[in-house]
Amino acid sequence: GAAFAGIVAGRRDRVGLIILDRPQALNALNRQAMDAVVAAATLFDLDETIGAIVLTGAGRAFAAGADIKEMAELSYAEATARDLFAGWDALTRIRTPLIAAVNGFALGGGCELAMMCDVIIAADTAKFGQPEINLGVVPGMGGTQRLTRAVGKAKAMELILTGRMMDAREAESAGLVARVVAAAELLDDVLTMAAGIAAKSLPALQAATELVDAAFDSTLTEGVARERRVFHAGFALDDQKEGMRAFIEKREPRFTHR
Ligand code: CAA
């Protein structure tokens, strides 16, 4: 339907796949793409038979940023009235593990979109950056906050002030990227990883993403206390009994996500 213009969404068993699909514009993130990605991810998140979601881009970009052509002539009043980019916040409330498979350029809003995901896996050809400064603006989808938390002040400041790109290896050693994979193998590798994650207990996965995110938004004391209570709550789940019994019985667990 129209709400999904600009993306392709599908599923393979317990894994949801969302592909940004405007390669002729390097998957620049216009309003339609935002609505479509958020809608698809939200539907997957509400579907208990989906245990992991993969987000990637068609062609030579993950996404080369927010759509410059769509916003170039906006006034301040228009930007604030439509609260430009606020719609993306919904993506950060998704609790199903969301994995960014970064296949090429992840610039500006593209880098910020990858950073909204739970894990970033990069092709060896990927390029990351916050080039907004070259357009006379600052990052607007969380880059100043999430890049700084991901790589620390020194590197975040340098990247944001110069607008330069960094390659996948640099992004990995800086801590932005979990793993680097040969470009030709990226999607297979990430779909396999996602299937492995999706086979685990969904309530445990959801609790884990929520708790790791809380590390960025709470004090250590609050975060550790919250973690301990969520750990205790796990004993109310069938999956806890199954997981621990399977270990003791030296067999693979069969989680029911209950
Ligand atoms: N918005 C709109 N269109 C874009 C785009 C963007 N962010 N990025 C690329 N495109 C379009 C180009 O205009 C071009 O379209 P035409 O064929 O119609 O001219 C097409 O995609 C292919 O791009 P290029 O010809 O530029 O490809 P290249 O290989 O020469 O360069 C690139 C690749 C270095 C990534 C270059 O496209 C580029 O610099 N893109 C813009 C990157 C950028 O500034 N991103 C930040 C955007 S602002 C933002 O994201 C704000 C925020 O924080 C949310």
TrEMBL record:
GO terms assigned for molecular function: enoyl-CoA hydratase activity
Keyword annotations of the record: Fatty acid metabolism, Lipid metabolism, Lyase
Enzyme class: lyase
Catalytically driven reaction(s): a (3S)-3-hydroxyacyl-CoA = a (2E)-enoyl-CoA + H2O; a 4-saturated-(3S)-3-hydroxyacyl-CoA = a (3E)-enoyl-CoA + H2O
EC numbers for this chain: 4.2.1.17
Coiled-coil positions: none
Function: Could possibly oxidize fatty acids using specific components.
Record family assignment: Belongs to the enoyl-CoA hydratase/isomerase family.
Record-given protein name: Probable enoyl-CoA hydratase echA8
Organism: Microcella putealis
